[in-house]
Amino acid sequence: MRIENLRQRLADLGAKPVHVQRILRAWTHALPLDAGPTRRGPMLPQPVLDALPAISAELAGLARLRSEHPADDGSARLLVELPDGQTIESVLLPRDGLCVSSQVGCAVGCVFCMTGRDGLQRQLGSAEIVAQVALARRLRPVKKVVFMGMGEPAHNLDNVLEAIELLGTVGQIGHKNLVFSTVGDPRAFTALMALTKGQVRPALALSLHTTDAALREHLLPRAPRLTPAELVDQADAYARTTGYPVQYQWTLLDGVNDSDDELAGIERLLAGRFGVLNLIPWNTVDGMPFQRPSWERAAAMARHLHRRGILTKLRHSAGQDVEGGCGQLRARAAASDGVPVAAPTSRRTTPVKPPAETPAAGD
Fold it and tell me: What is the pLDDT of residues 239-252, one digit of tens each?
């Protein structure tokens, strides 16, 4: 379901725009759909009131909590069931944040991500994306929404942007607290720049992971073939237009992208840029050929970059103690249901090591 379909359905029942906004506000805040002003506000037309129980049940069915997995860090991984029985993951984050999914599966195929092993199953409708927020708000407050869950938001642009618009208006999420995450699709940069003239302007997160163009092609095999330097140029332009710094995401893989050469590449690439680098030690996934670097190594990298003027934050990947990295809960649930989760042979990946004698971007 798309939000525009819900708007039209309500309008067909006789709801005026003010009525529609009232209902959408109640939904996004996990309130009864008839909540809101009565004497001093717009009374809902009787046909709308009569239809609300069925509409409420339908909206509740867009995202049902199948299981919750609290972690010691204050986060909680949620396995969410969609109307067709497919499952996705949302993550309740510390400090009133929520990570939502935009697709079932993902087509980018990042070799260190469980989600990419199955490829793309289907897109989420904009209402299914917002329904994750409504579900989460029944559990705890949500004041920040990041589109960093399952899927590549740039591959589902219309639905993601429609969800962002609703969350940034009646959903009352601050615009800088709506974070659009991408591996760097040109369509995303174009669409986001167009939003700078609109009502809601989200912040941007860019999954960088390396400064080496050749290594990036190995790690993100189906990402657009833009070099790290080209990606940073476009991200930086958007950040300076909106006034929100880019969040550069860097999943740390032991012996792959944690070398001194990468540190030097980061210094060259991000010096003077309007952004912050998030170093995130990899969330261990059984059966994948990667290891987490030691916390000491990760902390040393962050200190090194700080001393050289690169704003860097060392972050924990939420839910590590419950083995809840993106795609892991869904994979375990599918396996318990007897559903194969391995990707087709053409989508399998092999262990990745940095290409020999390949200069970092900017050399």
Answer: 999 999 999 999 99
